[in-house]
Specification:
The chain is 38% helix and 18% strand. It contains eleven helices and 16 strands. The strands form seven sheets. Strands 11-12-13-16 form a four-stranded mixed β-sheet, with helices on both faces.
Length: 334
């Protein structure tokens, strides 16, 4: 158990008069104040310390006596809204019927009958003209004492997320990911993209895996995920000084599928306050910049589309072989 903490000003212990109790944790790890109902008096509470002191020396009555006391208390309850009694339902485990009561969601230590609780639960939804009006209503509803965790001790109390702490956590995650690449390869393309954002470039996409197997079968030397000045090439073939790229139809906007003005996806601008539309034309311009940069450095750039790799991988290998032969012939002529 945690140390007692002041977590509510509304409930008070019937024995010691304290407005504090121990913090318990649910199975899902959510902390909450642990109050115990007083078996002798309706709508009164016992703090964790007093309840423990009564239970261990057996100062409380036996369980059967406590059940009968509780049934008498339930029979005397009245609905806070209509002043009537609630409905009863037969129990499958006991010969006695039990009453269906619900705690009042707004008023402490008050009860609602089954009908009033249903009316309260399924009342017509409030309509808002704008999103700002809706956000203001919700923030007001859950601020202060309206927040279920108001005044409660939380497990993260006092934890400070400093830049140094964030850096150490990032290094630890990256170190773990490098030693467990199979975790990311299991989730395919999304895993490869996530790994690359973390600085891990050894995780292949499905297209790269197909090309890698073909290069290995035809005994063509390659280096995967080779860095260059402004990016990373999928494969570098040293025999022909080739920068080889395998382009997905969506990520690189296959012109057979997209028009220049088609919107592929959205991303945040540098200001992080507004979205920018990324069209096929933007993707083509970015690829053109990379191609020109590689050619200026002396590389032979070869790119294949997704459909070509999936359906005609042998033709792709033939094109690569021709580029290698042409490069070797130029070297001999020099």
């Amino acid at each position: 158990m945690n140390n007692p903490t002041s977590n509510t000003d509304e409930k008070k212990c019937e024995y010691c008069g304290a407005n504090k109790t121990y913090i318990a944790v649910t199975k899902r790890g959510t902390p909450y104040p642990k109050w115990n109902s007083n078996p002798y008096k309706e709508n009164t509470w016992l703090c964790g310390k007093c309840y423990r002191n009564l239970v261990y020396p057996k100062a409380l009555p036996p369980i059967q006596v406590r059940k009968s006391i509780r049934m008498d208390r339930i029979a005397k309850r009245d609905c806070h809204k209509c002043g009537g009694k609630t409905t009863t339902q037969k129990s499958e485990t006991s010969p006695n019927d039990y009453h269906i009561w619900h705690r009042h969601p707004e008023v402490l230590s008050k009860w609602l009958c089954d009908r009033c609780y249903a009316n309260c639960l399924f009342e017509p939804k409030r309509k808002f003209k704008t999103k700002e009006e809706r956000y203001q209503y919700i923030s007001k509803l859950f601020s202060g004492t309206g927040n279920p965790m108001y005044g409660n001790h939380t497990l993260n109390l006092g934890r400070v997320y400093t830049p140094e702490r964030n850096r150490r956590v990032s290094e630890a995650v990256t170190k773990w990911a490098k030693s467990h690449p199979e975790h990311y390869s299991r989730i395919g393309v999304l895993g490869a993209i996530k790994a690359r954002k973390m600085g891990l470039y050894g995780i292949s996409t499905s297209l790269e895996t197909i090309m890698e197997k073909a290069l290995r079968n035809y005994k063509i030397q390659y280096i995967s995920q080779q860095r260059y000045g402004i990016g990373i090439m999928d494969f570098y073939l040293p025999e022909g000084n080739i920068a080889l790229f395998v382009d997905g139809g969506v990520w690189h906007a296959d012109p057979r599928l997209y028009k220049p003005d088609d919107i592929l996806f959205f991303r945040f601008k540098n200001s992080r306050k507004e979205w920018k539309k990324v069209t096929a034309k933007d993707v083509w311009e970015k690829d053109r910049i990379h191609i020109n940069h590689l050619r200026s450095k002396g590389y032979n750039v070869v790119r294949f589309w997704e459909k070509e790799i999936e359906c005609e991988i042998d033709k792709c290998i033939e094109i690569i072989k021709e580029e290698i032969q042409a490069f070797k012939k130029r070297d001999v002529d020099k």
